[in-house]
Design a protein that fits this description.
The chain is mainly alpha-helical and about 210 residues long. Helices cover about 55% and strands about 5% of the residues. A three-stranded mixed beta sheet has the order 2-1-3.
Length: about 210
């Protein structure tokens, strides 16, 4: 995907998520997401940060979080979730859906991966459907498979991943993990909920890695 296509796709997926969020009620917003320690509201708050965070804020936030990006992101999400009601968070996400701005230091594909995966972090615990288009799941897999920051390489080391709904595979040897590209993406990024949709001799290996991370 070239950068123009990525930007247009990010905008479309953000707007699709906003339309989905418009249908949620108060109980839904307070439901625990697939992200440990985050409610649905926290996840949405997190999604509003990349287009609003400056390099100075990243530096000062990292210092306060003792150098941990994940701790910084956690603090940002909780702070914004407490500061804005759901309607405002949706409006913020919608208003900047087409923004070219992203978290300092991130790659052009990162906002797309974020909105796709965090959409599942929200929808699946609610028992709701928010399908990831197969071509986008494959593009996201290609981006994260060797991304050390995401933790993917350690999770899938010596495994062969094979998509059941696309002409995509990764890894030349080892126990195989088969399944829909969207579920492979979620598993590669540490979501155990996707394991139930996967098969193959490598599922037990992957499960052990996800559940002991």
């Amino acid at each position: 995907m070239d950068q123009t296509t990525i930007l247009a796709t990010v905008e479309a997926e953000r707007l699709k998520l906003c339309d989905f969020l418009d249908t949620l009620d108060t109980t839904d917003w307070a439901t625990p997401s697939l992200c440990a320690g985050w409610t649905v509201r926290d996840v949405v708050a997190h999604l509003t940060t990349p287009t609003r965070t400056t390099m100075l804020e990243v530096i000062t936030g990292a210092v306060r979080a003792l150098g941990s990006f994940h701790r910084m992101a956690d603090r940002q999400a909780h702070t914004r979730a407490a500061a804005f009601p759901p309607a405002d968070l949706i409006a913020q996400l919608r208003d900047t859906a087409g923004s070219t701005r992203r978290m300092p230091g991130s790659a052009p594909m990162d906002p797309l991966v974020d909105v796709l995966v965090h959409g599942q972090d929200i929808a699946r615990p609610l028992g709701r459907s928010l399908p990831i288009p197969v071509d986008l799941a494959v593009a996201a897999l290609d981006h994260v498979k060797a991304n050390g920051f995401s933790g993917a390489p350690k999770r899938i080391a010596n495994l062969r991943l094979v998509a059941s709904d696309a002409d995509w595979a990764y890894g030349t040897a080892g126990d195989e993990v088969h399944g829909p590209a969207a579920d492979l993406l979620l598993a590669v990024l540490g979501r155990p909920v996707a394991l139930q949709h996967l098969s193959g001799t490598g599922v037990d290996v992957l499960s052990a890695r996800l559940n002991h991370a």
